[in-house]
Every structure is written in structure tokens, then in C-alpha cells.
Amino acid sequence: MKRRDADNTDECPHCRRSIYDDAEQCPYCGEYLSLEDAPSRRPRWIIACAVLCLIAMLWWALRL
């Protein structure tokens, strides 16, 4: 049985654990590693709008 070097590993985009470069699926979380299946991050404008709405609600509530 041939042992693989650490140079042949990469990070799973889903669980961030170390996996082999040629793996099609993560052995830890079971997710496929294609770029289309990688989790997407929330756009910054959604987070900014949520924070602004929270500030507006607090301002309105404390003003009463």
C-alpha cells in the first residue's frame, strides 16, 4: 500500500478538512467537490441591509 504525501492534499470547500487532490467526493462530509456544488457566501449587500434594518428598528423602538 502506497502512502501519499501531504503535498497531494487540498481543503474541502464544505467542511475544510484535508482531502486528497484527486478525490471527487469528500470522505468526511460526503459532499461532491465540483465548483458548482461549493457553498455560496451571502452577498455583502444582504448583510448590510439586515444590519441597517436592525439599526432602524432599534432607533424606532427607543424613540417611542
Annotation keywords:
single chain; 64 residues; alpha+beta; two-stranded antiparallel ribbon; 1 helix; 31% helix; rod-shaped
Q: Looking at the chains present, what oligomeric state does this protein adopt?
A: single chain
Strand order of the largest sheet: 1-2
Average pLDDT number: 82
Total separate domains: 1
Q: Number of helical runs? A: 1
Computed structural class: alpha+beta
Low-pLDDT sequence parts: none
Care to describe what's here?
The protein is α+β, with helices and mostly antiparallel strands and 64 residues long. It has one domain (6-63). The chain contains 1 helix and 2 strands; from the N terminus they run ββα. The chain has one helix at 44-63, and strands at residues 9-11, 18-20. A two-stranded antiparallel ribbon has the order 1-2. A hairpin with a 6-residue loop joins strand 1 (9-11) and strand 2 (18-20). The longest helix has 20 residues, at 44-63. It is rod-shaped, with a radius of gyration of 21 Å. The mean pLDDT is 82.
Q: Topology of this protein?
A:
Blueprint: E1 9-11, E2 18-20, H1 44-63
Antiparallel strand pairs: 1-2
Structure summary:
The chain has 64 residues and is α+β, with helices and mostly antiparallel strands. The protein is built from one helix and two strands.
